[in-house]
Every structure is written in structure tokens, then in C-alpha cells.
Design brief:
Elements (H helix, E strand, L loop, with lengths): L5 E3 L8 E3 L5 E10 L2 E8 L8 E8 L7 H13 L8 E6 L6 E6 L6 H7 L5 H20 L2 E2 L8 E5 L2 E4 L6 E2 L7 E2 L13 H6 L1 E2 L1 H18 L6 H5 L2 H22 L10 H7 L4
Antiparallel strand pairs: 1-2, 3-4, 4-5, 5-7, 6-7, 8-11, 9-10, 12-13
Helix pairs in contact: 3-5, 3-8, 5-7
The chain binds the ligand N#CCCn1cc(-c2nc(Nc3ccc(C4CCNCC4)cc3)nc3c2CCN3)cn1.
The ligand N#CCCn1cc(-c2nc(Nc3ccc(C4CCNCC4)cc3)nc3c2CCN3)cn1 binds next to strand 3 and strand 7.
């Protein structure tokens, strides 16, 4: 059909891909840099009348670290996921001569969670718990498919609207082999080690439990910005009740963070149990 992204038939090696034509992708602005690539805001405007949809396009930055093969793996991984708390895959765009490709995804207007928290500082405790439970649910979904994200951090969480966040940037994501419970990487990662579990630093060992450690760091990032003065419960209740509310909330989250940071990964909760801890009441 004229002007819409074109479906190309899938082959066993290559799942179904939706093809965006490069000539209709209009650059608008740069959105950021992820693992192995830069992300741009574009309008896919085949009719040329600015009525096309806004999309986020991740372009491979061929350099020493990233190869087209790695990028294709990231594209294939994202194209499989169907989860409300994971950024949606829309398709791919091949440059002329198929020398390079870009990943086309849904555009999330509020940007990264870390940027959002810095700009909208009055995010109350209820919304923080909602965001934390959404991230945890997205990670639980990844775990059911045996994928480890390996770079879970607030910079890689995107804000769709004031009550929805999504996990993004699967540039380092790996599938855990069926006969193991972990993935060992050869080359040391590029991420700041602050988000890395001890076994990931010491042995380059990554598992769902090392993602749980990183989730604990994301909780810490969330609640460092959380303004407990803006807890809606505080408006109606007495001072004592306010203090009890905030204390209860902080203890609940702090206790979970400590569990996620157990040195022995066996002692860390799985995402399903962590979700019960912060289940949004
Ligand atoms: N993850 C990860 C790391 C790589 N990365 C991914 C994106 C990305 N950004 C957006 N949206 C987005 C981004 C930035 C703003 C800023 C602009 C300047 N002022 C403040 C707000 C606003 C909206 N939507 C996306 C993506 C991927 C899929 N959909 C950006 N960098």
C-alpha cells in the first residue's frame, strides 16, 4: 500500500521485518546515545505533508566496539518483545546499498527517566512506586524469555507519559543458554561499574540476578529524586501520620534495595518476588 512501511517476507533466519524507506524518514533532532549507536527523532512522512508519525531511529555507529552483526542481534531481540513496559519495535530502515541499517522504534516524548526526574522534581512516592513496579514487570517479562539486559539503569528507562515508563536500549542484552543460569562475556563492558553486580565486575558473569542488582541501583536512582513532600497522602493526614507514611514507604523500598544488593546472587530476590515487595497498592 503506497506510503506505509512495507512488510517483507520473513525467512527462518530473519523474522518478519517492517521496512521503512530512508527517503521518507525526515530528521528532526538528536535524542541521545545508547550502546553502539545514536538515536534521532524523525518523522516518517511518505506523503510529504508532515502528517507522518514521529519515530525514534537508532543508527548504528560503526566503530571498534560495534558491528553490524551486533546491531542485527539487537534488532532481532527487540522485534520479538511484546510488553507494555518495553519500548516498541516498529521496523528497520536500510541505507542505499544496504551498507548500513537503522532500528525504528516508537518515540517516547518525555525522554529518559533520569532526565525526567531532574526536570520534574516533584514526582511523588506513589508515582515512583508505579514506575518501579513497571520496570520490575518489564524485567520479569525479559526473564521469562531468558534474556539478561546487562545495562539496566535510569538512563535506559524511557518515559512514555506521566504514569508509564518503558525499558529501552537492548544493545548489551544476551540470551542465557538453556544449560546455564548465567552468561559470561569476554570483553569487559563499557557501562559504569556502579550498576554492575560484584560477580559481573569480578567474573564478567551476567544473570537475571545481576539484573536484579542493577534494578536495586535504579530504585536508588528513583528514590534519590523522589520528593517525599509530595506524597498525596500527606495532604489529608496529620503530621504523625505523614511521618509514618513516609517512613513506611522509605523502609519498604530501602529493604528491597538491600535485598537486591546481596553480595551472594543466590540471596537476591527474583523479579517476581521483588514485584510483590513494591506491588502497587
Ligand atoms: N534508552 C536509551 C539510550 C539511547 N536513547 C534512546 C532514546 C529514545 N528517546 C526517546 N525520546 C526522547 C528522548 C530524549 C528527549 C529529550 C530531548 C532533549 N530534552 C530533554 C528530553 C525526549 C524524548 N524515545 C525513544 C528512544 C529510543 C526508543 N524511543 C534516546 N536515547
Amino acid at each position: 500500500e503506497y506510503g506505509h512501511p512495507v512488510w517483507i517476507t520473513s525467512t527462518p533466519a530473519q523474522p518478519e521485518q517492517i521496512l521503512f524507506e530512508e527517503r521518507h524518514l525526515r530528521f528532526i533532532s538528536s535524542l541521545g546515545k545508547g550502546n553502539f549507536g545514536s538515536v534521532e527523532l524523525c518523522r516518517y512522512d511518505p506523503l510529504g505533508d508532515n502528517t507522518g508519525e514521529l519515530v525514534a531511529v537508532k543508527k548504528l555507529q560503526p566503530n571498534k566496539k560495534s558491528t553490524l552483526e551486533d546491531f542485527k542481534k539487537e534488532v532481532n531481540i527487540l522485534s520479538i518483545f511484546e510488553c507494555d513496559y518495553i519500548v516498541k519495535y516498529k521496523g528497520v530502515c536500510y541505507s542505499t546499498g544496504r551498507l548500513s541499517m537503522s532500528l525504528v522504534m516508537e518515540y517516547l516524548p518525555y525522554g529518559s527517566l533520569i532526565g525526567y526526574l531532574e526536570s520534574y522534581r516533584h514526582v511523588n512516592t506513589r508515582r515512583m512506586l508505579l514506575f518501579a513496579s513497571q520496570i520490575c514487570t518489564g524485567m520479569e517479562y525479559l526473564q521469562t524469555l531468558r534474556y539478561v539486559h546487562r545495562d539496566l539503569a535510569a538512563r535506559n528507562i524511557l518515559v512514555a507519559n506521566e504514569s508509564l515508563v518503558k525499558i529501552a536500549d537492548f544493545g548489551l542484552t544476551k540470551v542465557i543458554p538453556s544449560d546455564k543460569e548465567y552468561y559470561r562475556v569476554m570483553q569487559p563492558g563499557e557501562s559504569p561499574i556502579f550498576w554492575y553486580a560484584p560477580e559481573s565486575i569480578n567474573e564478567s558473569r551476567f544473570s537475571h540476578k545481576s539484573d536484579v542488582w542493577s534494578f536495586g541501583v535504579v530504585l536508588h536512582e528513583l528514590f534519590c529524586y523522589c520528593d517525599t513532600n509530595y506524597n498525596p497522602k500527606r495532604v489529608r493526614s496529620s503530621l504523625l501520620c505523614k511521618l509514618l507514611n513516609v517512613l513506611l514507604f522509605l523502609l519498604q523500598v530501602y529493604c528491597l534495595m538491600k535485598q537486591c544488593w546481596a553480595y551472594d546472587f543466590e540471596e537476591r530476590p527474583c523479579f517476581s518476588r521483588a514485584l510483590l515487595h513494591i506491588s502497587f497498592k
